[in-house]
Automatic annotation (TrEMBL), chain A:
GO terms for molecular function: ATP binding; ATP hydrolysis activity. Keywords: ATP-binding, Nucleotide-binding, Transport. Residues 10-236 form the ABC transporter domain. The lineage of its organism: Bacteria, Bacillati, Actinomycetota, Actinomycetes, Kitasatosporales. It comes from Streptomyces fumanus. It holds the Pfam family ABC_tran. This is ABC transporter ATP-binding protein.
From TrEMBL, chain B:
Residues 128-159 are annotated as: Disordered. It comes from the Bacteria. Coiled coil: none annotated. Residues 146-159 have a biased composition (Low complexity). This is GntR family transcriptional regulator. SMART domains: HTH_GNTR. Keywords: DNA-binding, Transcription, Transcription regulation. One of its GO terms (molecular function) is DNA binding. The keyword Transcription applies.
Length: 298, 159
């Protein structure tokens, strides 16, 4: 199902990008394959390269090195543009347009436009068609931007922080709208988010970026099965050698570690299966701890 | 019967995968007689719209239920209950249930809170499980609890 020959929603090899003004590489040596039909969480700390990756996937930026493919097409080409929709963080909408005008514009600009879906998405948010976009709440603006993107009937939907600025109720509603769309037809979604709890039962693939590089590109079920959270006496730390320790923390005599065991675990440990949020936090923190170690060594 | 017989609740903090929660809630509804043979389960779209979980999760849960022989999916029509798990003892008007209701009243009268009652019931079930395990002299496994439940149901049926 995830073999290299299977059609990919998003894939990259040796992908790199640098912003001229900022100097350093925003992305470097990125290689991954996200299978189609997945709902992918793109996670990473601020500045890890999430937005850059989505802009590259949507064809708004060109790679400096390597390549990226959206639905096996080069982003920005006609074949990719008609099948890929990108909603950026700033959600570019015309503030003076009414909601109805905005949807009419979408219909004009897209040959595959389906009016039913955007109208439902707007209606479910209780948004009046005559309301001006500039007067909408952040949650309502997100809905209109989503409606516009879904009206294209994309096969791949790229969303940069769609849940930011939304209250918990609206977050749930927006996720429900997205999941409903995915249930009805073949739709791959890649969404970046810092709201890890919301991703727990919605995403089935994780793409984790760390300092511009790919930290994880895996099925969430596999991640849950492979990771253990162990707690025990700090004196027993030697028993963890030989396992992939993602993150470890010592507090007094107690040691807590998130790890991917390679074979049976020796020693006296209290072992639990962590949830997705804990696993992702461990991988995000792991990088920081490593950087700290390096600094001490230097 | 339309697919509005049961509604799934997904607890994201429980640490239990959502597909397992759906399977368990379906089994419980079958056991309690809330779901009966011929009933239609909610469509993936309905579940997803209400819970905002990944549609693949619903498909996986329904596939597991189908493999367990509890439901069958008919293309384009939906997923239907084919087998009930209702035990004669679990129905609303059964003597066991009446006994339990009376016991709960006594527990309340004695000042026990909901959590106290649940703790007592869990402890009694655990003690009973242990007794059965000791009788069987078998090592403890993950799936044991489920097997024991099935054994107990079998014994109830046989009795």
């Amino acid at each position: 199902m995830t073999g290299p020959d299977e059609p990919a929603a998003l894939s990259a090899t040796g992908l790199g990008f640098r912003y001229r003004a900022r100097g350093g590489w925003a992305l470097r040596d990125c290689g991954f394959t996200v299978p189609r039909g997945r709902i992918t969480a793109l996670v990473g700390r601020n500045g890890a390269g999430k937005s850059t990756l989505l802009h590259l996937a949507g064809g708004l930026l060109r790679p400096a090195e390597g390549e990226i493919r959206a639905l096996d097409s080069v982003p920005g080409t006609a074949s990719a543009r008609s099948r890929v929709a990108l909603v950026t963080q700033d959600k570019p909408l015309y503030p003076r347009f009414t909601v109805a005008d905005t949807l009419r514009m979408g219909a004009r600009l897209n040959s595959r436009w389906d009016p039913a879906v955007p109208e439902r998405v707007v209606r479910e948010g209780g948004i009046a068609p005559g309301a001006r976009v500039g007067e909408l709440s952040p949650g309502q603006r997100t809905r209109v931007a989503l409606a516009l993107a879904l009206g294209k009937r994309p096969e791949l939907l790229l969303l940069d922080e769609p849940l930011a600025d939304l209250d918990p109720v609206v977050r749930g509603e927006v996720m429900a709208t997205l999941m409903t769309e995915a249930a009805e037809r073949e739709l791959s979604i890649v969404l970046s988010s810092h709201v890890l709890p919301e991703l727990e039962e919605t995403c089935d693939w994780v793409l984790l970026l760390r300092d511009g590089r790919v930290g994880l590109s895996e099925d969430t079920g596999t991640l849950r099965e492979d990771h253990l959270l162990v707690t025990g006496h700090a004196d027993g730390a030697a028993a963890l050698a030989g396992h992939d320790v993602v993150h470890r923390r010592t507090h007094g005599r107690q040691l807590t570690a998130l790890l991917r065991p390679r074979g049976p675990l020796d020693g006296d440990w209290h072992v639990t299966h962590p949830g997705l949020e804990e696993i992702l936090l461990g991988h995000l923190r792991g990088a920081e701890a490593l950087a700290g170690d390096l600094k001490e060594a230097a | 019967m339309e697919g509005d017989v049961v509604e799934y609740r997904i607890d994201r903090q429980s640490g239990i995968p959502a597909y397992v929660q759906i399977v368990r809630q379906t089994e419980q509804a079958l056991r309690m007689g809330v779901l009966r043979v011929g009933d239609k389960l909610p469509t993936a779209r309905e579940v997803v719209a209400a819970t905002a979980i990944n549609p693949n999760t619903v498909f996986r849960a329904y596939r597991d239920l189908e493999q367990a022989g509890l439901v069958t999916s008919r293309r384009g029509l939906g997923t239907f209950v084919t087998r009930s798990l209702a035990r004669p003892g679990a129905e609303d008007d059964s003597p066991l249930r009446a006994d339990l209701a009376a016991w709960v009243e006594r527990a309340r009268a004695a000042g026990l809170e909901r959590d106290d009652v649940l703790a007592l019931v869990t402890a009694a079930l655990d003690a009973s499980d242990e007794e059965h395990t000791a009788q069987k002299q078998r090592p403890q496994h993950k799936q044991e609890q489920q097997e024991q439940q099935e054994q107990q149901q079998q014994q109830q049926e046989d009795a």
